[in-house]
TrEMBL record:
GO-annotated molecular function: carboxypeptidase activity
InterPro entries: Beta-lactam/transpept-like, Peptidase_S11, Peptidase_S11_N
The protein, known as: D-alanyl-D-alanine carboxypeptidase
Cleaved signal peptide residues: 1-36
Domain Peptidase S11 D-alanyl-D-alanine carboxypeptidase A N-terminal, residue spans: 35-276
Keywords (A to Z) from UniProt: Carboxypeptidase, Cell shape, Cell wall biogenesis/degradation, Hydrolase, Peptidoglycan synthesis, Protease, Signal
Nuclease among keywords: no
Family classification: Belongs to the peptidase S11 family.
One Pfam family per UniProt: Peptidase_S11
Organism: Streptomyces chiangmaiensis
Length: 297
């Protein structure tokens, strides 16, 4: 009888081992639970990532701390332009000397627009978002602001940017420029910028522009001839990160290195922001880490 009981115990033990093995094998075939994915460490002062489809927050680091935004400000510039009633993207804007003078005075990033050229609103959006042209930003603000003077129109346009931020419920965002060259009170947060970008990405023209790696645009010159502008996107993720679809770089003495980013894989779009990364290389690395994490959780 003792031998029989021992035999039963041994058989039960073997069965338990086999069962446990089957569970382990099955577990290996399923996706790891979200809590098993290690939260990444980034050099950026501020970071935020969300699922663009559901709005679910996936990552935060000082996500509500107000920071300088650099040229990521231009996302809102584009959003305001694209939200204008009865917008005709083929309307031509004549490039003024004031725009090029502004670039020189501020040593600003440029689309190299030439005075007298007639450039469409659509083309200005490419010049704004790809080479991060502050001259293109100035042209758009001058075109879509209201007022009898250029200064009044620019002030009006910046007011529209702030109104748009308020309409999105963003309490930690304020603009005092159309391009990110702030005058002391141009700031946002990683969370707010991500929400601005998410809203802008609902517009098909915006989506088309920000995912473009480079473009060649034909414009009319002052004399009635034509020339081509060739612009390359400053976003390093396009073409280097699978599924990347935007959005915008930014940099500056205060802003350091910023990037608002988005990518889509298997029907899931992850969108986020890093603010005040320590270098161009670290900005890219930070964004890739957060995208990888966003797709994993």
């Amino acid at each position: 009888m003792i031998n029989g009981i021992k035999g039963v115990r041994i058989r039960r033990a073997v069965a338990a081992v086999v069962t446990t093995g089957a569970v382990l094998t099955t577990g290996a075939l399923t996706a790891a639970p979200a809590q098993a994915v290690t939260k990444p460490s980034i050099t950026a002062k501020g970071g935020f990532v969300m699922n663009n489809g559901t709005g679910r927050t996936l990552f935060t680091k000082a996500a509500d701390t107000r920071l300088s935004t650099g040229s990521t400000t231009k996302i809102m510039t584009a959003k305001v332009v694209l939200s204008q009633p009865n917008l005709n993207l083929d309307t031509k804007v004549t490039i003024q000397k004031a725009y090029s003078d502004y670039i020189v005075a501020n040593n600003a990033s440029s689309a190299h627009l030439i005075v007298g050229d007639k450039v469409t609103v659509r083309q200005l959006l490419y010049g704004l978002m790809l080479p991060s042209g502050c001259d293109a930003a100035y042209a758009l603000a001058d075109k879509f602001g209201t007022g009898s003077t250029r200064a009044a129109r620019v002030t009006s346009f910046i007011g529209k940017m702030n109104s748009a931020a308020k309409s999105l419920g963003l309490n930690n965002t304020h603009f005092d420029s159309f391009d990110g060259i702030g005058r002391g009170s141009n700031y946002s947060t990683a969370r707010d910028l991500t929400k601005i970008a998410s809203s802008a990405m609902k517009n098909s023209t915006f989506r088309t522009v920000v995912k473009t790696k480079s473009t060649k645009q034909k414009v009319t010159t002052k004399s009635g001839g034509y020339r081509y502008y060739t612009w390359t996107n400053t976003n390093p993720l396009l073409g280097t990160y699978s599924g990347a679809i935007g959005v915008k770089t930014g940099s500056g003495p205060q802003a350091k290195y910023c990037l608002v980013f988005a990518a889509t894989r298997n029907g899931k779009t992850v969108i986020g922001t890093v603010l005040a990364s320590t270098s161009v290389a670290n900005r890219t690395a930070d964004a890739k880490k957060l995208l990888n994490y966003g797709f994993a959780v």
